[in-house]
Amino acid sequence: MWQALFIMFIAMSMIPAGDTAGKLLMNAHDASPHYVAWSRFAIGALVALPLLRADTIRLLADWRIWLRAMLLTGGILSIQTALATIPLADTFAAFFIGPIFSYGLSVLLLGEKVTLLRSLLMLLGFAGVLLVVRPGFDMEPGLIFAVLAGLCYGAFLTSSRWLAPVSRPGSLLFTQLFLSFVMMTPICWNSAPPITAPILGLTTLSALFSMGGNFLLLFAYARASATSLAPYVYFQLIAAVALGWLVFEDLPDGFTIVGLTLIVGAGIASALAATRPRP
């Protein structure tokens, strides 16, 4: 179990690190969010080529696989757009509406069982998101995109559960990267900035950190159950706050800190409630 926890800590730190590299690309080198998202899928698909099998090709004819890739594309593009204008911690806090949305969708569309305690904890986490976002007419556009990214990601998570029996994880991983690359290429093929050594380095780091974190998740899940590891997904928020402070000197304000605390606390309590033995 300790091996799985260590892997989770590394994985959940790598994902915000990839977004930190993407934010540096946009803020310091004037790269567009479209380029950052497209390059992430392009490099990811190349790295995932060894996962290609005959069943992977057959999956490309399934409209549900395209829908799942569209949700991922919308999520990654939206979060990169958010990161271009707002701090890392705020982006990830608003993005964490995703698990809450996935919980609701899974109950409504997949018929998953619901408990009163977990529903109340999800509402508490939603209150935390509201404290970060503070919706209103003067709401920052970046926060709107962060929420949209979370909604796309929540729907992506639900679709992943829906399609889990369709094929092996390696094929599903390759198709989501390859199809997202295909869908974004027509609008992004000419959006690449002039390639310099710093831009090439940050582009590669953005893609490899993000994909590496998701690959490490597979190793963690091979060593412990998904429910026992679920609370540690919130390492992402801790890493995002730390990286935002270290790299961009961004510290959350009071409302955001309270919101982050509610999101992390409710998420951990919800995951622990899911693992509690039933009477």
UniProtKB/TrEMBL annotation:
Topology with respect to the bilayer: Multi-pass membrane protein
Pfam families: EamA
GO cellular component labels: membrane
Primary localization class, coarse: membrane
Domain of life: Bacteria
Domain EamA: 5-133, 141-266
Intracellular or extracellular location(s): Membrane
Keywords from the UniProt entry: Membrane, Transmembrane, Transmembrane helix
Transmembrane segments: 33-53, 65-86, 92-110, 117-137, 143-164, 171-192, 198-222, 229-248, 254-274
InterPro entries reported in the protein's UniProt record: EamA_dom, EmrE-like
Family under the similarity heading: Belongs to the drug/metabolite transporter (DMT) superfamily. 10 TMS drug/metabolite exporter (DME) (TC 2.A.7.3) family.
Name under which the protein is recorded: Threonine/homoserine efflux transporter RhtA
Organism: Shimia gijangensis
